[in-house]
Structure of Protein FAR1-RELATED SEQUENCE:
Amino acid sequence: MDHTDVDNVKPTEECHEVHNVDQSWHLSRNAQANIGDPKFTAAFSKCMASWWTTEEFDIQWHSVVSEFNVQKHPWVIEKGNTRHLWAQAYLSGHFFANIRSTQRCESMNASLAIALKHKKTYLDVVRAIEDGISRMRMNELKADYLSSYTKPFQITKLVDLESHAVAIFTRESFRAFQDELIRETLYRIEAEIKSLSDECQYYILSKYAEKNRKFEISFDSRTKTLICSCKKFETVGLPCRHQLHILKHLDYTYFPGTLIQSRWTNDAKASAPSYVDMNVSPEVMQMAWFAALRSTSSRLCYIASKTDDSFKTARDEMKKLIEELENSFGLNDSVNQSIVVNNVCDPQRKQHKRKEVPKNKVENKIRRCGYYNGEGHNKLTCHQVKLSLSTSIQPT
């Protein structure tokens, strides 16, 4: 039985063109739970993650199913029928920005699990949500700072290509790019075919020690477009190792614009759409604008607080901008601005009434000695204690 609701979703006729990415960890766990053979789980995981063609996947899948004799197992039959939802071979060519179907909900659950425990107040939950949002924005601010003001190490001799990648990609994207750049040396060109017009060239690459693995790449010199049969660029958004090998072969010192996905560049936010959806309420849009301005202003405050001159310049410019906006909206100090009253409070605690004792039944507590249990005095003022002490210290 599966341990995730994602696997239970069946594709319908209306959603054949909708592509989903199941969480690989969940599928591997489900394979172990249903089949119970670690070797099958390893083979299934390899089929799931390998960058094969659909024909190569079908051959490998039938081979694995036959090897472990699970052709009639219901779970295997279901996974075979829905392989276009989880096999990398069928997902290649569709851009998902490295986001898995259960990634966001599980991340939110992990962040709020502590605050949503028993006996937590509304205030604790709201604070946990605000803290989570603050952590996300702080991580984003840190990533922006690292991408703008730090320079990673270059680990190959292709200095020009790496330098161009450093300038355009974020640090996380650059690390993924470096992994591909290191592995391009494992490939070599086995054949080069030119078209009649000399505008398109076709290359066939083979991998070191795996000559049966072939990759076809086409290059259009007019548009400077590189298309690889592995479709990793269309799937991930970063140049694959085969495309990088062809760029090196053609003596390119920069990346053509066709190999740059704006999603992973330092200017990704600048290209984000800024249109307003008319179906969204004004309150929601105001909250979104507030969050965006707060994120931008936090970076401004961080940079401007480094020196006294930058601090004064930023403060004066912000005062001017605030004054201009207040005048444009008709706001000033004499006008009573709207104050949002927080009506969400913690529930009132019920105070239990103490049992009242009638006055005529009040009994005076009698002080007793803790040494001899005598009445009217305590251990410190007990004359019997003093007498015994004086007797014990007399010389014998």
